[in-house]
Amino acid sequence: MDSDLRRIAFVTRRYIELRGLMLALMGATVTFGALFACAAPERFQTLWEAPVIAMPFGIISIEAGYRLTFGRAKPPLWQDVLAATPMFCLIGGIIADLAQLGFFWQPPASVGALLFAAYATWILVRDWRWRPHYVLLCAASVIAILMTADIASVSSFPSRLVLFLRAYAVLGAAMTAVGLLDHKLLVTSLHHQTSPPPTTQQRASFARGTFVCATVLVLAVSIALGLSGSEELLVPNVSIAFSAAFFVFTFRYTRPFRRRGLPKNDVAGLSPFRVPLTTAPLVMGFALVDAAAFDVLAPSSMFPLGTTLGVGAASAWWAWQAWPARRHYLLGAVAAAATAIALIAAQTTPIRAFAWFVLTASASVAVETLIDYRALRRSADERGEGEVHVDAV
Amino acid sequence: MSTPFEDLQSLSRLVHEPARLAILVALSACEKADFLFLLNVTGLTKGNLSSHLAKLEQGGLIEIEKAYEGRQPITYLRLTLEGRQALKAHWKRLDALRTAAKKLKPHMV
Question: Would you list the domain boundaries of chain A?
Fold first, then answer.
């Protein structure tokens, strides 16, 4: 009984962290992107952008899958923020390492690897009894640190980049393994319940997941086909891939509604640009992947102009959809516009252009999220949810 | 002075029953949880869980919140302040009982 209560307390407290398929997807994308950028011919090296941009939307679908299968357990806000540590480590590490690649500063090794080493050690110290598999991530981080330890002696840009990419490929593989083991731990710790027949929303959510997976898969196949064949094959392959994925999505998503009819509160109104909020992430994802594909395929593309404008348009559209509650999302549009003007006006190298894009986009997202967090916090305080929690076991 | 066995009689049955204790432990480890999560984490059947939740709500240890996410109805469960205090007091009492049981001598039985 005692161990059962400990299991219940542990799984409930760490539920958000144990949803490991999201970490696994992040890791797989990082490994794929890093290996692809290392191995692909120069003309196709920027193609890794597409799955990286599609990744957040895959994460949204996986999150919905967990919610519908295992339910919701809302931790205190600070624990919710701590659960996003791997994402912070990855984004922070990549931004710091991009700065390092541009010779802005000289840390002793890859910052991403250092951050992940600290994170894995923290998890091991805290949850050693339940999550010893974090030794894998710790070991991979140490290997990545060793791989990039003599970075100061490498003076040429391509050699530095390859070193970092290999280090991130190792980190990504460990993240995938650890994420899958976290997921296994969650599933084995929860009792299996016989699921009721799926609701319309569940089917729609499944369709969204299918769409994202199909897009990523077909895109990967197209890239492989494009690499194996001539350069001319790439454009038709990508077009076919998007058309096929869009067809799959349209069929899967609209089928339940064709049977029952669209509920009244989900009708988007008369404006053709106003879509239900549940579909918004999907539309944004589709627009961003298209923008990335445009950047990749534009013959003289030196910087991610399409993606920058895509991010700006998506932010503006999101602000307009939920005006005035989310008017602060206009910040993303302003940041993207400023970046686009700066990229057009100043002649810069592609890596610096991409670094600028990542910096401005992530800074605006960080500020927007912070404002959302404050609003959430305020409403939580008003509802009296800020009471101190005691440990049960 | 009462014996540990007499103390055992004074434990709150509302909290001490295994299924209800499991529900309270789960709810004390988070801010709030929905019905589906509690089903998964405790392994109870829907009927069992519903009846235990009703008893806990009657006792004022939890509160039930009905909400909608899109078109889907969700039942959120949350531990009340009274529930947290009751659970904390229960653990303290069990700890005291364990300590007392260790000191127990045969002639006291």
Answer: 2-296, 297-385
Distance from CA of B72 to the nearest CA of A (A): 8
The model's confidence at residue A195, banded by pLDDT at 50, 70 and 90, is very low
- Residue A146's CB is within 10 A of a number of other CB atoms, namely 12
Question: Looking at beta carbons, which residues of chain B come within 8 Å of A191?
Answer: 39-43
| CB neighbourhood size of A290 (10 A) | 16
What CA–CA distance (Å, rounded) separates A71 from A65? 9
CATH assignment of the domain containing B55: 1.10.10.10
- What is the edge-to-edge ordering of all strands in the sheet holding B72-79? A73-74, B32-34, B72-79, B62-69
Whether B55 is covered by a domain: the verdict is yes
What ipTM does the predicted assembly reach?
Answer: 0.85
CA dist A80 and A67 (Å) reads 15
Q: Full-prediction pTM beyond 0.90?
A: no
How many Å apart are CA A332 and CA A309, to the nearest integer?
Answer: 10
Contact A71, B35 (CB under 8 A): yes
Neighbours of A138 (CB within 10 A): 19
Q: Is the pLDDT of residue A123 over 90?
A: yes
Would the CB atoms of B81 and A75 count as touching at under 8 Å? no
* Whole-number pLDDT of residue A284: 63
Please list every residue in chain B whose beta carbon sits closer than 8 Å to the beta carbon of residue A8.
Answer: 22, 25-26, 29, 41-42
